[in-house]
């Protein structure tokens, strides 16, 4: 049975209260006894099946003897008080454990029991426990409901007045959804004092007009905040916008939200004072906190149930009726609207607020995350998902605390609203985890792109591109494909617009004869309608409207892009061609986008008569890129969610034993020898070409004779610990056809590498096929990334790779195989034999499973992975292990 080290964590209960989950031990004897002694007689009876007070002492003694194999007790504490306890003790033969659970009487219905069980189940899984068993009285409806609502499979067997419950600990999708729901509800409740406060205090609103605290106080007052506003200043009794008090203790009421704008050294003490007074949320705009100050600030927030935004941030805002809070030091109040915005950079936040205001989209709520000690983009996504106002989520995230939890939340939220981000940091040099091909391919850029792609997040390169996409997604239906009809009143601009569409990856198809005829019937003489559609300078408003409506209503294209330049002809006739796009009696089934080169601003939303808007761009490239993002979102929405398949021929326990044995012998980790690497891949059914090990020249000759295929040819590869790039070291001899050539090759390797070489591998010469690369890299932040693409000696030169974060669904695997540029080679390009795609999919699924099962797997590299019509086989394998513990990214806990 594996020993579990349970580090203390903080997590939210259903009412937003923060509790600390930690391992209980000998030092908790008195607290455990007090927990039980303060229970009512009825709750004691339900817990112990007796009302004897001796049960409290016996339970405390059991916890005090912790440390024995197969036993774990977890405690939930609040403000230093033990409010809940759960324990398991393994019963022979060691895969099932008896469970006990207790919650203080005054803490029932807060979610303490469920939260404790989630953490205990996670620890038990890591220790190899597969099920909990528990005895309960049949009238103990509360504990039975806790088991039933966990999301795990529960079997109940009634035996008179008792119920025997068995809780299976398998973490499946149903369980993760239940955890998601509980976590989201708790998160939203905890954020209410921050985003919907009834009263606010500004601490550090100085006398100087230019101080940040004073600027925030002014914005709160002039922004029409509906709650009460206070200020704390030790020397001033009255400020321009609020009555000032010398200390927090002298306020007439405890505010929900405290805004802290004091020098960094004073921040921890102010936070402690706020927490002790009962404040429920902090917004810390102060910057420059050192490590000790940062730790003290966060500790005060955890100790006193306060959520924290910042530090080092611009502030926050909520424009909804009944709140109207602008607690920022931005120059302008954010306009009310429906876009939720979260930004780590204050400057980016201001740019997004200004851009959304100019477009007329406005903001539902805004949070400047700053250094992001606590409240994160994940929290905000869950808030916007439930606030009833937000229909567009915009994020600027420079770092991720828990990317896999973010991905899970984002892919759920993206089903209901567009989620957009600026992909910051793309120019940062790709981080190489090690020297293997897979690690070299797996840059942080690829990892972030995989996260966004799988989660359905629209990732843009600049703030301008983000606002371009937001304007289109806010105002128009998403295109169901990439076919675009280009319409212009000047042929040259139409050609440039068509070029921009093709450059962006859109398709400008030639229109059918029937549709061309219909278009020419409504356009002026001299028009052409093959696509681009040149409506000519003489087109009037009604003709243009008829043309656009005809195209937008026809199934030949997925979007209509109209580029218009002002002409003297239109001015003379009084026609407003732009009005042809906005004055329509009803919405069109496909998006209509305008390009107006004479427009002063990059993008605008033109008000339409049907209460909608039409996006207008000054540059066709911006319009085309926005359409690409919208089409990608439509494609993501149209795809099934995907499932992680069940795999046969997987021996996880055996793989874990191999890993543990290697790390016992190599505590620092390292590269596996060929035998162990092959055995590990064998545990997951990953096919490899036959191979054998030879220690000397004579053994190499005998092995070659045994392995040689019908043509008698073999490959010899040198090996020594740490050898990664055999080709670069010239440590490979190919196409050896007889014993003499085998001997000569072995002597060459011995001559050049000497005592470094521990032996050679021999393999039959592989048949022809496509050389691919498949591998895994464990990122310490993002988790395992599966990489796939073109392999062989040129893999790094051509850099034709794609990546997806594990665990891979069937949809992820399909996209991973089709994403690289070499993908057509796998499907019979130019008459070449098609690959066994199903076998490729299996390899990727099995690599994903191996990486998820084994957190110690730092990287695995199958290169080349030979693919042909008759299957897939790894010709060369490299695996590196490091000592690393399991970490459940979906377990509920605060940062």
List the helices and strands and how they pair.
Blueprint: E1 9-12, E2 18-23, H1 29-37, H2 41-48, H3 54-64, E3 71-78, E4 81-91, E5 96-103, H4 112-126, E6 131-137, H5 141-149, E7 154-159, E8 162-168, H6 173-195, E9 199-203, H7 212-222, E10 228-232, E11 244-245, E12 257-260, H8 267-277, E13 281-284, H9 291-303, E14 307-309, E15 315-318, E16 325-328, E17 336-343, H10 346-359, E18 363-368, H11 377-386, E19 392-396, H12 403-413, E20 419-422, H13 437-441, H14 444-455, E21 458-460, H15 463-475, E22 484-488, H16 491-504, H17 513-522, E23 528-529, E24 533-534, H18 541-552, E25 559-563, H19 568-573, H20 579-582, E26 592-595, E27 603-607, E28 613-617, H21 620-638, H22 652-665, E29 670-671, H23 674-682, E30 692-694, H24 697-707, E31 714-719, E32 732-736, H25 739-753, E33 759-764, E34 770-779, E35 783-790, H26 795-798, E36 801-805, H27 810-818, H28 837-853, E37 857-868, E38 871-874, E39 877-881
Parallel strand pairs: 5-6, 9-10, 9-12, 10-11, 12-13, 13-14, 17-18, 17-19, 19-20, 20-21, 22-24, 22-25, 25-26, 26-28
Antiparallel strand pairs: 1-2, 2-3, 3-4, 4-5, 6-8, 7-8, 15-16, 15-18, 23-24, 27-28, 29-39, 30-33, 31-32, 31-33, 34-35, 34-37, 35-36, 37-38, 37-39
Helix pairs in contact: 1-3, 6-11, 8-9, 11-12, 12-14, 15-21, 16-21, 17-18, 24-25, 27-28
Description:
By secondary structure, this protein is an alpha/beta fold. The protein contains 28 helices and 39 strands. The strands form six sheets. It has an eight-stranded mixed sheet, sandwiched between helices. Strands 16-15-18-17-19-20-21 form a seven-stranded mixed sheet, sandwiched between helices. The chain has a seven-stranded mixed sheet with strand order 23-24-22-25-26-28-27, sandwiched between helices. A hairpin with a 2-residue loop joins strand 3 (71-78) and strand 4 (81-91). Helix 1 (29-37) runs antiparallel to helix 3 (54-64) and helix 6 (173-195) packs across helix 11 (377-386). The longest helix is centred in the N-terminal third of the chain and has 23 residues, at 173-195. The protein starts with 8 loop residues before the first strand and ends in a 14-residue tail after the last strand.
């Amino acid at each position: 049975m594996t020993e579990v080290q349970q580090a203390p964590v903080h997590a939210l209960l259903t009412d937003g209260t923060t509790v600390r989950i930690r391992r209980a031990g000998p030092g908790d004897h008195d607290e455990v006894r007090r927990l039980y002694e303060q229970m009512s007689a009825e709750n004691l009876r339900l817990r112990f099946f007796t009302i004897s007070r001796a049960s409290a002492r016996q339970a405390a003694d059991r916890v005090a003897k912790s440390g024995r194999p197969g036993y774990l007790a977890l405690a939930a504490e609040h403000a230093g008080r033990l409010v809940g306890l759960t324990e398991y003790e393994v019963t022979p033969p060691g895969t099932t454990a008896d469970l006990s659970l207790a919650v203080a009487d005054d803490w029932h219905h807060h979610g303490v029991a469920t939260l404790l069980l989630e953490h205990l189940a996670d620890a038990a899984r890591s220790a190899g426990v597969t099920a909990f068993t528990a005895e309960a009285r049949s009238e103990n409806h509360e504990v039975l409901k806790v088991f039933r609502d966990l999301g795990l499979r529960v079997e109940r067997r009634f035996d008179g007045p008792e119920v025997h419950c068995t809780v299976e600990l398998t973490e499946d999708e149903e369980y993760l959804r239940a955890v998601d729901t509980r976590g989201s509800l708790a998160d939203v409740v905890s954020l209410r004092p921050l985003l919907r406060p009834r009263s606010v205090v500004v601490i550090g609103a100085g006398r100087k007009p230019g101080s940040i605290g004073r600027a925030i106080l002014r914005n709160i007052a002039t922004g029409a905040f509906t709650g009460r506003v206070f200020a704390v200043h030790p020397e001033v009794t009255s400020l321009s916008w609020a009555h000032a008090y010398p200390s927090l203790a002298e306020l007439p009421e405890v505010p929900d939200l405290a805004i802290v704008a004091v020098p960094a050294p004073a921040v921890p003490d102010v936070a402690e004072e706020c927490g002790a007074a009962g404040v429920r949320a902090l917004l810390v705009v102060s910057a420059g906190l050192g490590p000790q100050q940062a730790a003290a600030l966060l500790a005060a927030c955890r100790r006193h149930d306060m959520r924290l935004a910042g530090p080092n941030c611009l502030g926050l805002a909520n424009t909804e009726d009944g709140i109207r809070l602008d607690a920022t030091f931005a120059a302008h109040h954010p306009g009310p609207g429906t876009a939720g915005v979260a930004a780590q950079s204050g400057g980016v936040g201001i740019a997004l607020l200004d851009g959304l205001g100019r477009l007329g989209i406005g903001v539902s709520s805004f949070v400047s995350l700053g250094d992001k000690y606590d409240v994160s983009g994940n929290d905000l996504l869950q808030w916007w998902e439930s606030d009833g106002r937000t229909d567009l989520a915009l994020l600027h995230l420079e770092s991720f605390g828990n990317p896999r939890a973010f991905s899970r939340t984002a892919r759920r939220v993206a089903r209901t609203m567009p989620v957009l981000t600026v992909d910051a940091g793309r120019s940062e040099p790709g981080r190489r985890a090690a020297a293997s091909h897979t690690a070299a391919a797996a840059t942080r850029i690829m990892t972030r792109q995989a996260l966004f792609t799988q989660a359905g997040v629209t990732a843009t390169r600049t703030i301008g591109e983000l606002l371009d996409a937001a304007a289109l997604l806010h105002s128009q239906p998403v295109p169901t494909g990439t076919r675009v009809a280009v319409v212009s009143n000047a042929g040259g601009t139409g050609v440039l617009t068509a070029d921009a569409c093709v450059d962006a990856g859109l398709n400008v198809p030639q229109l059918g004869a029937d549709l061309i005829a219909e278009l020419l019937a409504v356009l002026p003489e001299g028009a052409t309608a093959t696509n681009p559609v040149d409506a000519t300078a003489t087109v009037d408003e009604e003709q243009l409207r008829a043309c656009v409506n005809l195209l937008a209503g026809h199934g030949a294209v997925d979007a209509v892009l109209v580029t218009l330049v002002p002409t003297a002809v239109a001015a003379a006739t009084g026609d407003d061609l732009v009005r042809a796009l906005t004055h329509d009696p009803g919405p069109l089934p496909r998006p209509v986008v305008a390009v107006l080169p004479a427009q002063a601003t990059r993008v605008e939303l033109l008000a339409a008569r049907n209460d909608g808007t039409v996006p207008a761009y000054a540059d066709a490239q911006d319009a085309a890129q926005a359409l690409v993002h919208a089409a990608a979102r439509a494609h993501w929405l149209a795809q099934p969610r995907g499932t992680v398949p069940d795999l046969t021929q997987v021996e996880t326990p055996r793989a874990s034993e191999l890993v543990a044995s290697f790390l016992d012998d190599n505590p620092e980790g390292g590269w596996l020898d060929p035998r162990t690497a092959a055995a590990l891949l064998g545990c997951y059914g990953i096919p490899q070409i036959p191979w054998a090990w030879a220690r000397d020249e004579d053994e190499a000759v005998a092995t070659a004779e045994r392995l040689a295929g019908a043509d008698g040819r073999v490959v010899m590869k040198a090996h020594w610990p740490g050898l990664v790039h055999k080709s670069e070291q010239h440590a490979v001899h190919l196409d050896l056809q007889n014993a003499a050539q085998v001997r000569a090759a072995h002597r060459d390797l011995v001559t050049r590498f000497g005592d470094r070489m521990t032996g050679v591998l021999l393999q039959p010469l592989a048949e022809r096929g496509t050389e691919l690369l498949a591998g895994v890299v464990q990122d310490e932040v993002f988790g395992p990334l599966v990489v796939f693409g073109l392999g062989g000696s040129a893999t790094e030169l051509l850099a034709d790779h794609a990546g997806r974060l594990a665990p891979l669904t069937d949809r992820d695997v399909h996209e991973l195989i089709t994403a690289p540029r070499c993908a057509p080679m796998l499907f019979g390009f130019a008459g070449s034999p098609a690959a066994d795609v199903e076998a490729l999919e299996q390899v990727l699924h099995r690599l994903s499973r191996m990486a998820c099962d084994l957190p110690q797997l730092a990287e695995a590299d199958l290169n080349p992975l030979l693919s042909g019509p008759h299957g897939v086989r790894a010709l060369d394998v490299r695996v590196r292990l490091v000592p690393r513990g399991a970490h459940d990214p979906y377990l509920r806990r605060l940062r």
